[in-house]
Amino acid sequence: MTDNNKKITSFRELGLSDLTLDVLNRMGITVPTSVQQQAIPPMMRWYDVMAKAPTGTGKTLAFGIPIIEHIEKHRRALQALILSPTRELALQIGQDLSGFAVNRPWIEVAVLYGGQPIRTQIEALRRKPQIAVATPGRLIDLLRRRSLRLDEVEIAILDEADRMLDMGFIKDVRFILDKMPRVSQIALFSATFSREVMDISYLYQREPVEIRVEEIGQDKPDIKEYLLPANGAERITAIRKILSLADVKRGIVFVNMKQSADMVVKKLRHLKINAAAIHGDIRQQQRERVLSNFRKGNLRILVATDVASRGLDIENVDIVFNYDLPLENENYIHRIGRTGRAGKSGIAVTFLSPGGEDRLDTIAQMTGAQLEEITDLDTFTF
Ligand code: ADP
Ligand code: MG
């Protein structure tokens, strides 16, 4: 107890079961993060929760622990549903939850997402999972085929809630929420909130507990943010230079368009830099292969559209590049938040092309980002 501002709570003090304490122990997770300290108690008591907390501060376990604790052992019905905006994030959450349920072999977790054969997922549903992690499109498809029902779901989570409620998703999400007559707990999690999150909270939640973890102290992702003026082709050369300057083992380059992703990969490979792309036009199998290679350390540079900007938790990503300025302000936070996770440090380099100054000012203003300009890469050290 050195910091008198924040009391250090143990997971035991959060009133968790021995099974949960045992698995946390095995995972080497000892001290709950702020969002876990604040969200777990109300969620355990079946309160609705809306929680905004910085990237990489353990939101998955903040909802994952109460879910696992709430699953009724002898009821083979879908009891909890987690919605994710991307397939890869759904897979990751599914894996996290399965891992967290290792010492509860009766718990089944199904991951339901597009781009993979629906038959396999229908078979998984025949095993009567208690927990499903899904992307909205595939879930609705399965509902229409009557391969699953949501009428016994008691817990619904929107991870990356603001993204789940923006234009492309909100209709589907409301359709799904309206299919759960017995839902008694709805929780919304993200590092950024929006007007729509407030609206959906007002419409669907009852007396929600509001949690806002500020980006300060331990809850501030340790990311050094840089700005590098560079136009067009200069960016590839700059990436090469920075990769060696900063001794980068693993990095992500974010672009705005699928074609740019393929183009950047081609140019990096030409410089003998091990790179591969992930974006919406790539076959799902290939997307998963690329991501898995990246996680394993067999791929040095992942070039991605915003399909990879939300939620992905990949160990030891040293650096994130914004090859293009993100089109949405919040995505700046999510993109750079792929590094500097769980107390580790990271670097973010944002390229500024001529004419982009106003756009970058807006992003910095809206996100509170503070970028240090690299004026001369030749003399720069990280
Ligand atoms: P968020 O959803 O807030 O971006 P994640 O849930 O993906 O963050 O967690 C980020 C990383 O932190 C994960 O690798 C997770 O295993 C780790 N983690 C979660 N909780 C703790 C904790 N209490 N102590 C240490 N590491 C943790
Ligand atoms: Mg998350």
Secondary structure: elements and pairs:
Blueprint lengths: L17 H10 L6 H11 L4 E4 L6 H12 L9 E4 L3 H14 L8 E4 L5 H9 L4 E4 L1 H9 L10 E5 L1 H4 L5 H8 L7 E6 L4 H10 L4 E4 L9 E8 L4 H12 L5 E4 L3 H13 L4 E4 L5 H13 L4 E4 L14 E4 L6 H8 L8 E8 L4 H11 L4 E2 L9
Parallel strand pairs: 1-6, 1-7, 2-4, 2-5, 3-4, 5-6, 8-13, 8-14, 9-11, 9-12, 10-11, 12-13
Helix pairs in contact: 2-3, 3-4, 6-8, 13-14
The structure holds adenosine-5'-diphosphate and magnesium ion.
Magnesium ion binds next to α3.
Short description:
With 382 residues, this protein is an alpha/beta fold. The chain is built from 14 helices and 14 strands. Helix 5 (118-126) links the parallel strand 3 and strand 4.
Notes on the structure:
This protein is of the alpha/beta class and about 375 residues long. It has helices spanning about 20-25, 35-45, 60-70, 85-100, 120-125, 135-145, 160-165, 170-175, 195-205, 235-245, 260-270, 285-295, 330-335, 355-365; strands spanning about 50, 80-85, 110, 130-135, 155-160, 185-190, 210, 220-230, 250-255, 275-280, 300-305, 320, 345-350, 370-375. The strands form two sheets. It has a seven-stranded parallel sheet with strand order 3-4-2-5-6-1-7, with helices on both faces. Strands 10-11-9-12-13-8-14 form a seven-stranded parallel sheet, with helices on both faces. Helix 3 packs across helix 4 (about 85-100), helix 6 (about 135-145) crosses helix 8 and helix 13 (about 330-335) packs across helix 14. It starts with 17 loop residues before the first helix and ends in a 9-residue tail after the last strand. Mean pLDDT is about 95; it is low at about 1-5. The chain binds adenosine-5'-diphosphate (ADP) and magnesium ion. Adenosine-5'-diphosphate (ADP) binds next to helix 3.
